[in-house]
Amino acid sequence: MTLAALNAPVDLGKSHLCIIGQQRLEGELHVNGAKNSALTLMAASVLSHEPVRLRNMPDLTDIGAMAQILVSLGMGFHLEGSSAVLRGGGLTRHDPSYDLTRKLRASFFLIGPLVARHGVAKVPLPGGCRIGSRPVREHSKGLQAMGARISMESGVVSAEAQGNHGRLQGCPIHLDYPSVGATETLMMAAALAEGETVLHNAAQEPEVVDLAGLLKAMGARIQGAGSSTIKISGVKELHGADYAVIPDRVEAGTFLIAAAATRSRLHVTPVETSHLSAVLAKLEAMGCSISPQGQGLTITTPGQLRGCEVRTQPFPGFPTDLQAPFMALLSIAQGDSFVTETVFENRLQHVAELQRMGAQIRTNGNAALVKGVPMLSGVPVTGTDLRAAAAMVIAGLVADGVTHVSGLEHLDRGYTRLEERLQAVGARISRIDATRTALLAA
Fold first, then answer.
1. CB within 8 Å of 154: residues ≥ 6 apart
2. Residues 206 and 179: beta-carbon distance below 8 Å
């Protein structure tokens, strides 16, 4: 991680990636720590007065944004290589500003630990990629069940604990949908609540299990993480901890999909195979050969790819975060493929950009019919959100000619120096700073 991640995200809207396609990849790609997990673990550090060290932290703009928010609340934050040390002893505020939270959805997860520790929290509604409404009703409903008074004014959600000494009260909570964010928010809130909280229909994602691992390392009493029922027995305080973030399953999946699309042999490591079982099954069904090697996986694609059907679902189903990259792969597979997005209502924005490259895709609501074509063509395209940007990179790697991918402000939220890592395994890809180019030409 670099100190640059602490600065306000740079506007990369005029910069782009230049990709010369149809190059085979060869070698090894290292998988960083999971962004979605790291952000939540940073929020959990609010629960302790003592230092929390998080190892295997990814160097991403989203991580820098969360660090800025925590520092604004009075927390200490500093970097030691790929580790981040967060010190909650100086936490004095419970109201992060809209200017800092507006681009980071994970900022809303702070409402749980802040109300648990302070008894009160005021957090703006979340931002992030525009891929759906992402309601926070489950978060608010759960906190309300635990005795918090919830109100909203001018886009800011306020939560105030009404129990003894400003503590939340443990209780049974049934989630109408197994929301990862709501499950994590309520787990953090329940860790310092009075009594036992039982989350029914909880999310089962690996990131939830990772959060439980950190909370238990801090002294929390949690059972059942990774199942649909999680029990949290509240304690009066949590202590510091030293904890490593799990590998990023979405990044690992993106690399495996890129290897399949380019008919390459690639070793991706480290990978928790159980975190990607649905994706691995689809890749193998399409004709890829995947074998474990050390802490990672080696993938080869010896023949023609076959189309398949993909339906996004909560874990352990096919992850919505890999739907767009996988559609780029399906666009060059033989035969018809069917993709149904069930998690976010606005997550097919990449279809139009793939169509510009020659993909034959027809949509009906949140479903898409993909008729495989022999080849895509390089054209200027834009990644409209984080995973759509990754899909454009994969499409550019297989396309004939030159592809220019803009929307790097999205890509950099989830992939650290992606172009440099792909260059190292044979991709002809480079980042063009349009502002600098214009200055040199002047």
1. none
2. no
DSSP 107: G
Residues near 352 by beta carbon (within 8 Å), at least 6 away in sequence: none
Q: Which residues are catalytic?
A: 129
Burial 172-197 (b: 16+ CB within 10 A, else e): ebebeebbbbbbbbbbbbbbbbbeeb
338: which strand partners? 309, 369
CA distances from 371 to 99, 363, 409 (A): 43, 12, 30
Q: What pLDDT was estimated at residue 105?
A: 82
Q: What is the CATH number of the domain that holds 39?
A: 3.65.10.10
Task: Let me know: does 342 contact 366? Beta carbons within 8 Å.
Answer: yes
Residues 48 and 119 in one domain: yes
State the angle between helix axes of 111-118 and 180-191 in degrees (0 to 180), rounded to the nearest 10: 10
Identify whether residues 226 and 293 lie together within a single domain.
Answer: no
Rounded CA gap, 60 and 10, in Å? 12
Q: At what angle do helices 111-118 and 137-145 cross, to 10 degrees?
A: 20
Residue 185 is part of which domain span?
Answer: 35-244
Which tens digits make up the pLDDT trace of 81-90?
A: 999 999 999 9
Which pTM value belongs to this model? 0.91
The answer to whether residues 111 and 238 belong to one domain is yes
Q: Are residues 165 and 193 in the same domain?
A: yes
Q: What is the DSSP string of 271-313?
A: --GGGGHHHHHHHHHHT-EEEEETTEEEEE--S--B--EEEB-
For the stretch 421-439, pLDDT in tens is: 999 999 999 999 865 444 3
Which of 244, 266, 289 is a domain's end point? 244
CB 56 within 8 Å of CB 226: no
Residue type, 308: C
Choose the final residue of a domain: 199, 217, 244: 244
**N-terminal to C-terminal alpha carbon distance within the chain:** 34
437 vs 1, 13, 380, 434, CA distance in Å? Answer: 27, 14, 17, 5
| 279 and 407 fall within a common domain | yes
Rounded distance, CA 380 to CA 89, Å? 49
Work out how many domains the chain is built from and give that number.
2
pLDDT digits (tens, 9 = 90+) for 354-413: 999 999 999 999 999 999 999 999 999 999 999 999 999 999 999 999 999 999 999 999
